[in-house]
Amino acid sequence: NGVERLNMATPVSVLRLPKGPDPNSRGFDPKSPRFIALCRTSISTSAASEVDSAELQREQHARSVLRETFLRCLLSMTNKKVQFHMYEKVKVEATFGASDIDVLNFQVSDLHTPIGVQKEALIRSQDVISFTFDV
């Protein structure tokens, strides 16, 4: 038999993230207003030479640990029922799908609200006080 069988890997879904602010999508310009608004540090980079570098390293390490923990939390929420506690004592429940790159919006399915169910929806993160889900 001259027939070869190809073993193909199981396809996985890919979440395409929004492009960065520059046309080549190579990251964020640290001097851009967007970067300054979203990625502020409590230690000014202009004063970094005057500040103890160990303090800056400690802050950067703490931030990276917190960011990694939060991203792992988002990953573990995927396809789970999540209860969102929002302003005005509103509680909604939905199946968590994904977050955008800036964590400004959550994509959810089967959103149960006090006035009905929405099949697909985006929840603005600034409207959420907290969220809970079963691990």
What's the structural blueprint in terms of helices and strands?
Blueprint: H1 33-38, H2 53-77, E1 81-86, E2 91-99, E3 105-113, E4 116-124, E5 128-133
Antiparallel strand pairs: 1-2, 1-5, 2-3, 3-4
Task: Report what the structure shows.
It holds the Pfam family Gemin7. The protein starts with 32 loop residues before the first helix and ends with a strand. The protein has 135 residues and is α+β, with helices and mostly antiparallel strands. The model has no long low-confidence stretch (mean pLDDT 79). Strands 4-3-2-1-5 form a five-stranded antiparallel sheet. It is built from two helices and five strands, in the order ααβββββ.
Mean pLDDT: 79
Whole-angstrom Rg: 21 Å
Instruction: State the major sheet.
Output: 5 strands, antiparallel
By secondary-structure content and strand pairing, the structural class works out as alpha+beta
**Count of extended strands:** 5
Model regions low in confidence, pLDDT < 50 over at least 5 residues: none
- Helical content stands at 10-25%
Strand residue percentage: 25-35%
Sequence of secondary-structure elements = HHEEEEE
**In DSSP terms, counting alpha (H) and pi (I) runs of 4 or more, how many helices?**
2
In short:
Helix content is 23%, strand content 29%. The chain is built from two helices and five strands. It comes from Lates japonicus (Japanese lates).
